[in-house]
Amino acid sequence: LFTVINESQKQQLECVSYSSRYALGLFYEAGTGLAVPWAAQYITDNPCIRFISIDNKKRNIESPEIGPSVVVHTTVTFGSEHLDSDPAEVQELILSHLQRIVPSLPKPHSVKCQKWRYSQVTRAVPNCPGQMILHTEPVLMCGGDGFTRSNFDGCIESAMSLAEAVKPHL
């Protein structure tokens, strides 16, 4: 039996930390009109909500057969403060803040509230090239934004690093 991860690697991985937040999805019947002039908006002055998007508009996939949807992300502070709260209560809190920010939104057909415990990297694996080789025979590697940063470029950087690291093992 081989050890998959050594103590040094374990300590490096334990250094990684993430912010937490909630994501709320509001789903509407086909044909519902949302009187909102923007596709996405970053909110700077609300203690609960940080980002709102009219998802189908943001993705440019408006269709008469598919109803619109709204995606809401909470602030990191709100996510941390309510990490262990009752999800139904959290959903109602977010909805009440959303109603104040965008009072024109109609009542949705359905709502989904999702806790996002590991939202974005706040501290990545230190001194790491975007990936970690855990074992060589057989080859076992790990990567992702926990080795770089939580944005598209960070994910691409990790993927490129993983591709380079696996080449000698092919």
TrEMBL record:
Domain of life (superkingdom): Eukaryota
GO molecular function, one term: oxidoreductase activity, acting on NAD(P)H
Xref: InterPro entries: FAD/NAD-bd_sf, RNLS
Cellular component, GO, one term: extracellular region
Protein name: RNLS Renalase
Organism: Pardalotus punctatus
